[in-house]
Design brief:
By secondary structure, this protein is α/β, with parallel strands linked by helices. Helices cover about 40% and strands about 10% of the residues. It contains 18 helices and 13 strands. Helix 11 links the parallel strand 7 and strand 8. The C terminus is likely disordered.
């Protein structure tokens, strides 16, 4: 039987995936191996995910960003989901989670794995619940069957809400927003109606055996996470976290890679404390956080409220940030929402890496600043996190090619451009020193995630065209080709 990345790392082997990660992170392969062996980092790599370009999640590496995609009962089909997948990869997602809850779950999941160069995650209880009439009808065997099937399909990591225990449920009484995790609420209902312990907890070692066979990484779900600032840091949240620490050690004992999911709504001044507590309780397992949202008052702008918390979490040591789109709390995101959510979170992740002094992380900022001062508009666009958006905004008022050499933009105009005034003053009498403009990104020690352009995954294993119901299309075209 093929062994997991964790088992091979413990045996001193530097795998091909570790070599690729070292290349992308600009780190020594032996350092990568040691981080995986110690459980401080994970490389989600299901043996059956042929299109995967390996990546790593750990606090010693570039902060990663996950994009949630998936359909619902109300909207989205396979073509729409593949276009969202393409958008997520194009705009820099390091992983994607297929959170589909509507129709054709197997078809969508298998297509995502086949066409994704980044790790694919799922929440298997979303599929399991569709096989029964009521949450109380779920069985441990059904849950294990769904988990095993998804592992065989090539899913790289799964959210398993095994930390929601019977004894934790009374601790949620008195909350403002109760249990906001879908998986957590389903399991709480099962526990209440059956009067027994969480079947994902009692069956955890069996899940470990399935994960070890396929090298699926645990993403231990935070089913009792706070859904509002008022509920942040309560007994229920931290009781579950203690259980996740126990489960982390059990998973590692089975040779299975594990990361831990974190809270959704946390006041900004308590974000770092949450990260530090998780690192202590879970023995340094990578922390994967949703946001966190630092205020509850901005529906429609929660990609911003959460990116603020995400930057704080990344600075404190969170290893991966789960993006939030403008549609959070309001509706299912579309392709443009994926783009906006990823932009906000790539900014948060990069800002965190700059703040923590990750080698070379600021070189990208310096190069763009030099292009901006030099009025090199085309290089500014090329270096921008979203080049198309940057040029689109510039060209709304100054669209002509002649303006690509102009020493001003429409905000200040010619007369009031501070950089032009400064340049002219430096050129006039020579008393002001010349500025440093020699950042060479080709020589930067930065990880790939902190260099332009975003979305540079190796897609050589991904089919270029997709056929759905006899119609062939290319995802980046955004429409079917007859």
């Amino acid at each position: 039987m093929a062994r997991t990345q964790l088992q091979r790392a413990r045996d001193g082997e530097v795998t091909a995936a570790m070599e690729r990660v070292a290349e992308r992170e600009n780190r020594d392969p032996e350092f990568v191996r040691q981080q995986v062996a110690d459980g401080q980092a994970v490389i989600p790599t299901n043996h059956a995910h042929d299109a995967l370009d390996p990546m790593i999640i750990g606090r010693e590496f570039a902060t990663k960003v996950n994009a949630n995609i998936g359909n619902s009962e109300e909207t989205s089909d396979l073509q729409g989901e593949l276009e969202k997948l393409h958008a997520a990869v194009h705009y820099g997602a390091d992983t994607v989670m297929d959170l589909s809850t509507g129709a054709n779950l197997d078809e969508i999941r298998e297509a995502n794995v086949e066409h994704s160069p980044v790790p694919v995650g799922t929440v298997p209880i979303y599929e399991a619940i569709k096989h029964v009439d009521e949450p109380a009808d779920l069985t441990r065997d059904l849950l294990l069957d769904v988990i095993e099937k998804q592992a065989e399909q090539g899913v790289d990591y799964m959210t398993i809400h095994a930390g929601v225990l019977l004894e934790h449920l009374p601790l949620t009484d008195g909350r403002k927003t109760g249990i906001v995790s879908r998986g957590g609420s389903i399991l709480a209902r099962w526990i209440e109606e059956n009067g027994r312990q969480n079947p994902l907890y009692t069956g955890f070692e069996e899940i470990c055996e399935i994960f070890a066979e396929h090298d699926v990484t645990f993403s231990l779900g935070d089913g009792l996470r706070p859904g509002s600032l008022a509920d942040a840091g309560d007994e229920a949240q931290f009781a579950e976290l203690d259980t996740l620490g126990e489960l982390t050690r059990t998973a590692r004992d089975h040779g299975v890679q594990v990361m831990v999911e974190g809270p959704g709504h946390v006041p900004m001044d308590r974000v770092a404390d949450n990260v530090e507590r998780q690192q202590e309780v879970c023995d340094g397992a990578p922390f994967y956080v949703l946001g966190p949202l630092v205020t509850d008052v901005a529906p429609g702008y929660d990609h911003i409220t959460s990116a603020i918390g995400a930057a704080e979490a990344g600075r404190a040591g969170a290893a991966m940030l789960c993006y939030v789109t403008p549609k959070e709390h309001l509706g299912l995101p579309d392709r443009e929402d994926v783009r906006d959510g990823l932009a906000a979170y790539r900014i948060a992740a990069h800002a965190a890496d700059v703040a923590t002094g990750l080698p070379g992380a600021r070189d990208w900022d310096d190069a763009l600043s030099e292009a901006r001062y030099a009025f090199d508009w085309r290089r500014q666009f090329d270096l921008a996190l979203d080049p198309q958006r940057a040029q689109e905004y510039h060209d709304q008022t100054l669209p002509g090619d002649n303006y690509k050499q102009a020493r001003f933009c429409s905000m200040c105009g010619v007369e009031f451009c501070s950089m032009r005034i400064d340049q002219d003053a430096r050129d006039a009498d020579g008393e002001m020193s010349a500025l440093d403009d020699e950042t060479d990104l080709d020589d930067s020690p930065a990880a790939e995630a902190n260099l332009p352009p975003v979305g540079t995954h190796d897609t050589s294993g991904v089919p270029e065209e997709i056929e759905i119901n006899g119609v062939t299309f290319t995802p980046d075209q955004g429409h079917a080709d007859d």
